[in-house]
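Table S2 (text version). Query chain:
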Amino acid sequence: MAVPRSFKFLLRPTAKQAAALAACLEDHRTLYNAALEHRRTAYVKAGVSVRYGDQSAELKHIRGDDPDGQGRWSFSSQQATLRRLDKAFAAFFTRVKAGRTPGFPRFKGRGWFDAVEWPKDGDGCRWDSQPEHPSATFVRLQGVGHVRVHQHRPVRGRVKTISAKREGKRWYVVLACDDVPAEPLPGTGAVVGLDMGVACLVTMNDGVHVANPRHLAATADRLAEAQRDLARGERGSRRRRKKVARVAALHGKVRRQRIDYAHKVANALVRAYDVIVHEDLRIANMTRSASGTVEQPGRNVAQKSGLNRSILDAGWGVFLTVLAHKAESAGRELIAVNPADTSRTCSRCGHCAKENRVTQAEFVCTACGHAAHADVNAATNILRAGLALRQAAEAA
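Corresponding structure-token output:
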């Protein structure tokens, strides 16, 4: 079985190449904003809806009128930028039809456009562009040149698309690959239910707790100091740009730590269990602000804000995404269940009541007296619900 997979590597550009990458990103941002303005103006002034095909057809003239600017870059990468805008409009209309908050596509300011994509390896880009080099890997990007890559692991499958991404002061190349062979692991016969939490990242039904390292909380003092320093900076100054880079570097470190930890925990789980059951969490809804409006202000806003910060710091979404990819590659079965009432239902007798949850960590059933760690009790209910879903699917 083959699966799609992405590979991300650090780039080692020269000073000249770094400047070219920054110019490439800026020109693609300008193109995105100009295309958005074109669509807005055409609809407001003439009631005309401009499509991707119309704007793609105009690229030839744009490049011809600006040979030293837009004309330097790959035509296909500029088409990818226009498709990116088209997807933003498609998502906007989908939200309108569904009755959700529309969120009209916005202009991209500096710092809000961080990646350029080349849709096909060999069209304006080339992975491993100098295979004869004895000790280094290079990627060739049109207008930039052969950029050295810190390739820390082999690339498998067929390289489909190539993206250059900026994170703070660092540049990365992201390869989207097809036909990557799966790496099934030998069966263990074990099943597990996972309860996600803040005190512990994961609690299993067998009583094992996986610690939550709280990476953001560990960096909070340095981050607060850097943000206060940034707030005092004068907009547009060189010193303020350095302060922005410092804040971005701290956030980048926290993000990398969180992803690395998620990979380690997910690896341990897929090696140990054949079936993994977890909660189907709606994290965006769970972390929605409680501030309310001027007419109807929210309650316990500070408490809810702290809970939201703790949930996001735990990185549930990152962990579950990584776990899904690893389970697919390893041939493991991943089941998501509705988390409703799993924390207040007794895993022994099935009695469900709010009073069963005595404290955050203690569960005592008011019907049968069963006592257990609250998260272990919830994980047991989650596992039972997942196995029931699995059995129903097999019987259907």
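Notes on Table S2: Residues 185 and 227 are 46 Å apart (CA to CA). Residues 191-395 form one domain.
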